[in-house]
């Protein structure tokens, strides 16, 4: 029997959907894509990329280090956060099928500092890696914050039920440390090998710490109201982490993944002071190439008349401090 959730503009009580317009791709769409697919080449062997993160120094309020795909280490004065943690070499059911990692994590798992909070945006395998969640629980026992319907994924990875917080869009959780984390809308979908399609909610997160704010978009297509609404409710974030990859072909991906030009529009809708690109150069998921997203982002920034400093990509193990 499937779970029951509050009825809203994005849930009928049992299934979640995108407000205003929702499009699910089917196997015929996948077959059409694969028949016409001309994927750009990716490296055949994993590329090394690894650093040991330094503690957050008193001169900064936030350090963001890209580990790969949508995994960031966010160090704040009130604790350390890990977003969509994926450390496995292969993503997919039981880590036996699916794309292989082409760049090593920017921080080795054993070099991570104490992790206080894990943010999980949705259930797709390149964001929700069961093996990594198990490792995190055994070593760090962090608090997990995730959208509605995703708690069973954490429980099956060993997380104690009282260490899992489920949120609906616009709900927030205040930690004893003083961190405040709110779940924000995203335009996406959910599905795993087990469980109903769109039976678990997806979203992003707005993080408020002393004198600094950050936005983690999760996985999303562009939406002409969602990100303006986030800015109106929470204000412009000091840092936004926005996906820039896995966008080709556009006829297939447009309803679930933004391209670099749309990522820039999300940055502008949010009023973000600085943005970093993610969800690229780690797993070959779609037809865009390994290094194509940074090139397209640079071209789109120039076309928009924006400085490359306001929205950039970085190598795994790199990031910025605020």
TrEMBL record:
Identify this protein by name.
MBL fold metallo-hydrolase
Q: What is the lineage of its organism?
A: Bacteria, Pseudomonadati, Verrucomicrobiota, Opitutia, Opitutales
One GO molecular function term of this record is: zinc ion binding
Metallo-beta-lactamase domain ranges (all copies) = 80-280
For this record, an example GO cellular component is: cytoplasm
| Record-linked InterPro entries | Metallo-B-lactamas, NAPE-PLD, RibonucZ/Hydroxyglut_hydro
This protein's UniProt keywords: Hydrolase
Instruction: Decide whether keyword Ligase is in the record.
Output: no
């Amino acid at each position: 029997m499937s779970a029951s959730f509050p009825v809203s503009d994005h849930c009928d009580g049992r299934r979640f959907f995108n407000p205003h317009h929702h499009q699910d791709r089917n196997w015929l769409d996948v077959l059409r894509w694969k028949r016409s697919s001309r994927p750009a080449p990716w490296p055949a062997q994993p590329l090394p990329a690894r650093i040991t993160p330094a503690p957050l120094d008193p001169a900064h309020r936030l350090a963001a280090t890209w580990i790969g795909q949508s995994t960031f280490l966010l160090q704040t004065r009130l604790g350390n956060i890990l977003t969509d943690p994926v450390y496995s070499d292969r993503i997919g059911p039981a880590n036996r099928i699916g794309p292989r990692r082409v760049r090593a994590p920017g921080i080795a798992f054993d070099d991570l500092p104490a992790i206080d909070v894990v943010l999980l945006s949705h259930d797709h395998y390149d964001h929700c890696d069961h093996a990594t969640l198990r490792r995190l629980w055994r070593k760090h026992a962090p608090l997990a914050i995730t959208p509605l319907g995703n708690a069973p994924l954490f429980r099956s990875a060993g997380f104690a039920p009282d260490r899992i917080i489920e949120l609906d869009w616009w709900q927030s959780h205040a930690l004893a440390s003083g961190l405040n984390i709110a779940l924000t809308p995203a335009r996406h979908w959910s599905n795993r090998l087990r469980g109903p399609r769109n039976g678990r909610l997806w979203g992003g997160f707005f993080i408020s710490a002393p004198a600094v704010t950050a936005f983690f978009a999760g996985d999303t297509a562009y939406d002409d109201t969602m990100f303006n609404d986030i800015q109106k409710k929470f204000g412009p974030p000091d840092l936004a982490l926005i996906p820039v990859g896995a966008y080709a072909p556009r006829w297939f991906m447009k309803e679930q993944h933004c391209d670099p030009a749309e990522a820039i529009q999300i940055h502008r809708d949010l009023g973000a002071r600085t943005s970093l690109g993610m969800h690229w150069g780690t797993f070959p998921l779609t037809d865009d190439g390994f290094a194509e997203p940074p090139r397209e982002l640079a071209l789109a920034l120039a076309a928009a008349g924006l400085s490359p400093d306001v929205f950039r990509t970085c190598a795994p193990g790199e990031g910025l401090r605020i």
